[in-house]
Design a protein that fits this description.
Blueprint (H helix, E strand, L loop, with lengths): L15 H8 L7 H12 L4 H8 L3 H13 L3 E6 L2 E6 L15 H8 L2
Antiparallel strand pairs: 1-2
């Protein structure tokens, strides 16, 4: 019988630790979703705080906010030196598989 690559037998356990490490590097939600969820659940956060919480750079957060704005999910309003974010959560999710649900429904199911 041919052994599958990375199986315990014939590989002496190599690769299992690597698989465990890799499985911890991805999540079910994109960084776009993480930023939107943070804003919906916690209100106005600074770009730096969003980046720290999501695990991405401030520049990446700014790009995500710009893309979310272009797609109609977020509008940025300047208040003095700070930004405030208005969310439009009744928009449908973007992928055809989940387009029958809105962002609001997703966030509602994630609330504690």
């Amino acid at each position: 019988m041919k052994q599958a690559r990375g199986s315990r037998q014939g590989n002496k356990g190599k690769g299992f630790g690597q698989r465990d490490a890799v499985s911890k590097t991805w999540t079910f939600f994109t960084n776009h979703a993480h930023v939107l969820i943070l804003l919906a659940m916690e209100g106005d956060l600074r770009v730096r705080e969003m980046g720290n919480r999501v695990g991405i750079t401030e520049r990446a957060v700014q790009k995500i906010l710009s893309e979310l704005s272009d797609a109609g999910f977020v509008r940025t309003e300047k208040v003095g030196r700070e930004n405030r974010y208005k969310l439009f959560l009744e928009q449908p999710l973007r992928h055809p598989i989940e387009a029958h649900k809105t962002v609001a429904e997703l966030i509602k199911n994630l609330r504690p």
